[in-house]
Request: fold
Amino acid sequence: MATIQAAPAASRATIRDASRPLWRNPSLLMGATLLAIVAGLAIFAPLLTPYGPIDQDLLNAHKPPSWAHPFGTDNFGRDVLTRVLYGARIDLMIGLVPTAITFVTGVLLGAIAGYYGGKIDTILMRVVDVAVAFPFIVLLIAIIAMLGPGLRNMFIAIALVGWISYARIVRGEVLVARNAEYVLAAKTLGFGDARIIFGHVLPNVITPAIVFFMSDAVLNILLGTALSFLGLGPQAPTAEWGRMIQEGRQFIVSGEWWMTTIPGLAILVVGVAFSLIGDGLADLLRVEERV
Amino acid sequence: MDKLGFLGRRLLQLVPVAVGITIVVFLMLRLIPGDPVRIILGSRATPEAIASLQRSLGLDKPLWEQYILFLGNLARGDLGMSLLYRQPVRALVLERLPATLWLVAYSAVLAVAITVPLAIVAARRKDRAVDQVIRGGTLLTLAMPSFWVGIIFMMFFSLRLDIFPVSGLGEGVRDRLYHLFLPSLTVALSLSAILIRSLRSSIVAVTLADFVDTARAKGLTERRIMLKHILRNALISTVTILGVNIGFLIGGTVVIENLFAIPGLGALMLSSISGRDYPMVQGITLVFAVLVVAVNILTDLTYAIIDPRVRL
Reply:
């Protein structure tokens, strides 16, 4: 088991820092708390509001914020607070589902390319070069244009393109790690490639990818709500923040600010929560000090 | 001479990327579930109409032959026919391109104008209150959806204060700068949040360099040291960051064009989607990729000009 002790110093630093109490890391604490609150509101939405997300009440349409409707009602008389709460379910999914998919595929592809090198690596890097030549959102719009709008196709589009960043990050790290002594030692012991990659290399190089996961979640929420704003995401009458902003947009002329302002603030809160967690993790795992 | 050689080599590196771009754009059509021709024409189309559209899209030939045909057409500048407008895609795209270019360039200029002073202030007052406020501001800005920021701007500057128009492009340079101010500012804000962070940390890093001490020992004014010595060096890394984010900048215009009703490529792309105008979507995607690649070469050249050490 000498190989385990020969792992780079960075991972030991990780363990030491992780033992630091959570309250010494305000970013992580604040971010995690915010996210937990939003998740709680999303899960318990039916208990928190007497209305349903698609319940119309045309007699009470276009109402500004009041006691009965703290965030006002939209043009169908639907309660904006209720729709924001239920919208959190979909928007948290937009932040997490495609990000998790691209994290797994990107890390795998990057690790394989970096570890084996040669033709596989060359092909992967060529694909990366081509993919970054397109503006990310344009490629997503083009894919959705072909597949048809909707939440599922939005996820497929992000999954097809979003792995690039993770593959790049992990490939670079693996290129360095594959010549490290602990990897050579594992090879000498006759371990298989899969065991070396998953058991030895990845645990030592995964940290930057984990930290990037958080900024990627912010990016995906912003992209997802933007696509949804453009009408390419979940279709009406689904309560989703980007779509709500799209629907409320025509009423800003008559001064009905709540239909657009409130869902945007919700996006902002979730984005800040993920960013804070990312900053906190970077601090906790000391990404910048890694060699 | 050096710079010309650099440009030549840079262009040569682009060949595989260009081929890749054409393959992606060509294969996009294959993502359509089912038969694109039937989807375009609807379920009540006659067999003759289906066969004729298949021929005009080249779908009756094997895949590789379709690709060669596609490349040949591209080489002649032919992007195909728009199904919706019944006109060549190229003409429609060229008509919309200037508005998008205006928006991209204007946003880049505004982003730099916001970034440089704020980054200097944050770096000079490192870890003090001003720095913290600017840092917090960038964190918030990065989490804001740009289309929402645009709507807030509209509500405040256009509807309440009535000092900027809600939409449109304007005629003539001055009017255009006036019309495009809010949309460009919206795109510029999120970009400058990224740029401020990087420029601030490179100013902090450069400030510690020996040549800054030397300049100070020579008795130069702080202002001159900052502008001539620190900023010029720090800007190099920021230009790189700007280059990396060109796709982000150009992509940002797509959403904002739709919000502010600016008749550019992004607005055309969206209207083509609802009309199932696939050749148009392909053509616009291609032009966007060309735009990113072209601006990237421009940033590389800028980089070579700012940094006299670069003899690439």
Observations:
- Residues 97-311 of chain B form a domain with the MetI-like fold fold (CATH 1.10.3720.10).
- The mean pLDDT of chain B is 86.
- Chain B touches chain A through 48 residues (CB under 8 Å).
